Amino acid sequence: MTDLRKLKRTNTCGELTATDEGKRVILNGWVNAWRDHGGLKFIDLRDRYGITQVVFNPDRLPPEKMKEAGKLRYEYVISVGGIVSKRPEGQENRNRLTGEIEVIAESFEVLNPSLTPPFLVEDDVDASEELRLKYRYLDLRRPILRDKIILRHKFTMAVRKYLDSQGFLEIETPLLIKSTPEGARDYIVPSRTNPGKFYALPQSPQLFKQILMISGFDKYFQMARCLRDEDLRSDRQPEHTQIDMEMSFVTEEDVWGVAEGMFSYVFEKVLGVSLDTPFPRMSYQEAVERYGSDKPDIRYGLEIIDLSDLLKNTEFKVFSGTIAGGGKIRGIKFEGGAGLSRKEISSLEEVAKSAGVKGLAYIGLTAEGFRSSISKFLSEEELKGIEKRFDLKVGDICFIAAGDFGITGAALDAVRREIVDKYDIPKLNEWGFLWVHTFPLFEYNESENRYDAMHNIVTAPYDDDIPLLEEGFNTDINKGDYNHPWRKIRARQYDLVLNGVEIASGGIRNHKREIQEKIFRVLGFSLQRVEKMFGFLLRALEYGAPPHGGLAPGLDRIVAIITGSESIRDVIAFPKTTAAQSLMDEAPSEVDPSQLEELGLKILKR
Of the candidates 201, 351, 375, 399, which lies 20 to 30 Å from 137 by C-alpha distance? Predict the structure, then answer.
């Protein structure tokens, strides 16, 4: 058995410099590379701190150890004792902190050999994600992933330090809770001691953080693990982490101020970046009017322009007919895009069609005049009006969509994102933080002919809109009735957007039972269901619940953005695939029949 007391490292592989020359050291790490130069043998020894070159010299080691050194291979984990020496002049590696020195080995021991890895432990690895996830322990040795996990740690610690300085208490909430409908499916856990009953894993600590406010803990936070059984994509995982916060006696501005202070502190400490605060604010309605999205990337222009008033009487029936039917004609300008090829324009049209519109018109302005798919259908006055509305200059092009407000917004948002993705659009800034607020409280569910909560079932309406709750109960629900009282209710809901990605969602909560009960009624919950699912919360609201609100930034998404990762899987140590599987430990898996029997469960074939 190896005696690690004698092999305990004195230094890491990333800290020795020329100032350490002559120092006797012990390094522990993995063989990153090896080279045989005849008499001398070299390895690069790696740990999470860096790489140090080690030299095996027959003048310093007995023959049997030199022979053993010649058998060292990739990813062997070893301990090396030796003396720090300056590298010969001209042989320095200026790309490494340790590049001026090498360690002349006087002793070494193989702590554990390694099989030949299925892929190289390097950044530009030629291996599928499935293979890397199966051997995640090797994947995490790669510098690019290692550094992302380290940055995530620093980000998390900075968040904790800032919130502690603001008087917040970190309080853990249960992981085994009652199942309540919160949008996605719950993961459920059978109870052995209560046969036939189940716990749920929390989709979020929402109800418990409200209970903490009622308990008098006026500033709470938690690095909360959230679990949701939902369809996955690059920015979703079945288990993720959110920076959960809740505060009592606050308004929206109070919550935003805390969040802005936190992000400013963390970005400065972790990235050395100074953020401008306060962050811009924009209502939901303004966001969808200007960008077609409630999470716009405000680092770029390309804002949506409404042309409906200019074209309502046009002889071009595609446009005039759309407007007569209550639709809109809207477009965006791509500065310098008039030189796009027909193939590139067709590609953008397909993007728009996939978002719901029937087509995408374009009008470009060149030195010879208009280049357009529809100019022959428009009058000179209408073309000039469009040119003026978009402020088109020679070399610019605008793309125009027809349809209802929501569909044209979705289509132009998709086109805008595609343009930003494919072409070199100058950024207005590097970090596009934006508060989007005042969402609708409800949205109409056409397939079920009822109303759903647009965001959170516990979000409070604005005080002025509370009478509309009761008024709606006395008004028939009709999918074509855009004047139904419930469509007009504004929620004290807000999202924080960063570079076109929603990174946090929050709101001011209902702190009075009667309002929360009315919202449950709007959502179609029976009294029995409300009592069964939410009775404990409603009872708590009757015992002096203070006004409160909060926010829940998604830690994984934020770290993915600031590290330039394409997927949040890159910033989670042990992520799942899009099929919610862990390829490394093969979860989920079957369990022993005796376990099922003990729980009173039986697997049925589907």
Answer: 201
Q: Are 419 and 348 in contact (CB under 8 A)?
A: yes
CA distance 70 to 58: 11
The model's pLDDT over 66-94, given as tens digits with 9 standing for 90+, comes to 999 999 999 999 999 999 999 999 999 99
Helix (H) or strand (E) holding 273: none
Distance from C-alpha of 158 to C-alpha of 79, rounded to nearest angstrom: 34
What phi and psi values does residue 519 have, to the nearest 5 degrees? -65, -40
Chain centroid, CA 167 distance in Å: 27
Q: CA 559 to CA 129: how far, in whole Å? A: 19
Strand ranges, E, within 293-437: 305-306, 328-334, 361-366, 369-372, 397-403, 433-437
- What whole-number distance in Å separates Cα of residue 287 and Cα of residue 370? 30
Domains and CATH numbers, the chain: 4-112 (2.40.50.140), 144-281+553-580 (3.30.930.10), 300-426 (3.30.1360.30), 439-491+512-545 (no CATH)
pLDDT tens, position by position, 461-475: 999 999 999 999 988
As a whole number of Å, the CA-based R_g of the chain is 31
pTM: 0.93
User: What are the residues whose beta carbons fall under 8 Å from the beta carbon of 202, sequence distance 6 or more?
Assistant: 173, 174, 175, 177, 208, 224, 225, 226, 227
Give the rounded distance of the alpha carbon of 263 from its chain centre: 15
Longest Cα–Cα distance in the chain: 96
- Chain-centre distance for alpha carbon 355: 22
Query: What secondary structure does DSSP assign to 476-509, as a single string?
Result: ---TT-TT-GGGGPBB-EEEEEETTEEEEEEEEB
Q: Encode pLDDT of 385-414 as tens digits.
A: 999 999 999 999 999 999 999 999 999 999
Which pLDDT score is estimated for 396?
95
Distance CA 525, CA 541 (A): 18
Closest residue by Cα to residue 250 from 549, 552, 553, 551: 549
The answer to whether 403 touches 356, Cβ cutoff 8 Å, is yes
Q: CA distances (Å), 358 to each of 18, 195, 229, 321, in order?
A: 68, 55, 34, 14
Contact in structure between 502 and 495 (CB atoms under 8 Å): yes
Question: What's the pLDDT band for 587 if we cut at 50, 70, 90?
Answer: very high
| pLDDT in the model for residue 479 | 66
C-alpha distances out from residue 33 to 57, 68, 277, 353, Å: 17, 16, 47, 52
Q: Are 168 and 222 in contact (CB under 8 A)?
A: no
